[in-house]
Structures are given as structure tokens and as C-alpha cells.
Amino acid sequence: MTTEMDTLATARYVRVDDLLKASPDLGSWRPKVGLAPKLSDAELVILAVMQALLGFACEARWLHHVHTHLRPLFPYLPQQPGYNKRLRRTAPLIGRLIRLPAADTAFWSDDVWAADSTPVECVRSRQTAKRSESAGWAEYGYCASHSRYFWGLRLHLVCTLHGLPVAFALTGAKAAERDVVLDLLAADPALIGDRPGQTLIADRNYYGRAFEQQVAQLGVRLLQPARKDEPARAGARLFKPLRQVVESVNQTLEGQLDLERHGGRTPAGVIVRVLQRLLALTTAIWHDHTTGQAVPRSLTAYDH
Which of 3, 219, 268, 295 has the fewest other C-beta atoms within 10 Å? Predict the structure, then answer.
């Protein structure tokens, strides 16, 4: 494990552990009477973050690596079934923790956001898709960026120009991107209420006069390229370089954090593995910013 990963894991563990001590209700529910877990929720969260950053898509291989190389850092390590069960049960906590390091950076107050979606493929075999527990939620969809059809879900992401996740949702592959973004913006009024004049960059899939009016009513300015039947829009020359930001964030999730190799077989398993990768991305940006790194979204210091 690199020195940078050691520092990140230690710093994040301290923050999460202090948070759970101050607000124990945020942790996983447990009966008042019974055995106390040997692995704390804070240790479990850090294990999940380290797994994503170090590129271990297989939980069994990850736990073997931890047993072999990182044993002094964790007094107790569960077997793979126990780790998987604890991880799925801790999904609500992981979801809450994504915003905490994000809000602890200067990037959180950026006045420009970018929105896009990326595939989260679940299976490829038709027969497996038929008997998958995710059937009904997961479905067939088309990804124009990759020019391919897939069976699974879509991760909808609103992020800053530094790649910091601001809001996200996991939906079926055919969900309308416009509707999902509106729901994300409306779900947390304080998110945009504290940012008058916020700008949202989106591609041509976020189209429609009604959609633009609804976004404007929320106090957000929409910046997107003109469609073929529309006149040129103001700020069009700025769109292309800025638009590449969200594409590079998706590439970070897919290429370095193995988003499509999540390994989830059930809805709960897919959800927690997507949250795990979003938390890993946010934690890396938080640590890079805190330590004054030149590139705040660089994961190369942690992935080997």
C-alpha cells in the first residue's frame, strides 16, 4: 500500500469514526442486547473505499489482499460472505457519507455544474437477464457515447467541474435523463437555494422547452448545445471544452473505479457497489484538495 493511500485511509477513518461517535444514529441499526461487532462501521467504510481505489472488483481477492498485506491495520477481518452482508447493510451510511467530504472542500460552492448519465451494466446473457433479481428495474438501453446496447441501469450524476459529485441517482436504463435531473434538483431545495445563478451544463439529451422552463423556475441556468433545428445558443463556444469534464468523470468511474465491473447480483448489491465507488471518488478528491495536490481528481497515487 502506498504512503498516499495510508494517509488517506487514516484521515478518512478518523473523520468517519468521530462522526459516528457524535451521531450513532447514522450507523447500522443493531439491537441493544447482543454481541458487539468486531469490525466497526468506520473500519468497514474505509475497507470499502480502499477496495474501490485499489481496483479490486472481486471481494474475495480484496479480502485475501487485506489479510496478506494490510493485517496490522485491521484487528479483525470478516470472511467474504460476512463482508458482503455488512456492506449491503451499510449502504444508507455510505450514501450519507458521500456528501460530507464533498461539502468539506472549496469545490462544493462552485457555481457551475455538469450533468450526464453513464451505463451500469448488470448482465450480458439474455438467459441471465431473465432470471436476474434486478429484472423489472434493470432493462435494455442504448448508450450513444459507447455506441452499444446494454442491459442494466443508468447512473445519473450532477457534479462540479472538478468532478465532485453533487447529486446522483440510479435508475432503469430507459429513464428520461431530463426527468431524473429535475427530480435531483427538486429533491433538495437547499442545494440550489443557497446558490443563486447556478449554471448547469448538459448535452443534447436534456432538451425541450418545458424542461428549460422548469430548470429556470428552480433558479438554474441551463447551458447546452443547440439541436439541429435550433438557432445557435449563447456560450456555445464554451460548451465543448467544459462538456468534456463530465465525460472524464464518467471515464474515471468506469476505467479506474471499475463501475461496470461492480459484481452486484441483486438490487441491494448493485446499489452499495455504486455508492462505494462514488464515495471513493469523493474521498480521493477531498484528500487531494486537503493536501494541496495539483490535480484534485487524480487517483494514480492510490490505485497501486
Answer: 3
pLDDT tens for 146-186 read: 788 999 999 999 999 888 999 999 999 999 999 999 999 98
Tell me the pairing of strands 112-123 and 198-201.
parallel
C-alpha–C-alpha distance, residues 147 and 87, integer Å: 33
Q: The pTM is what?
A: 0.92
What's the start-to-end Cα distance of the chain, in Å?
7
Q: What cell was used for 2?
A: 502506498
User: Cβ(297)–Cβ(249) under 8 Å?
Assistant: yes
Closest CA to 184 of 167, 161, 160: 167
Give me the residues paired with residue 113 across strands: 160, 200
Q: Would you say 218 and 204 are in contact if contact means Cβ atoms under 8 Å apart? A: no
Cell of 283: 474521498
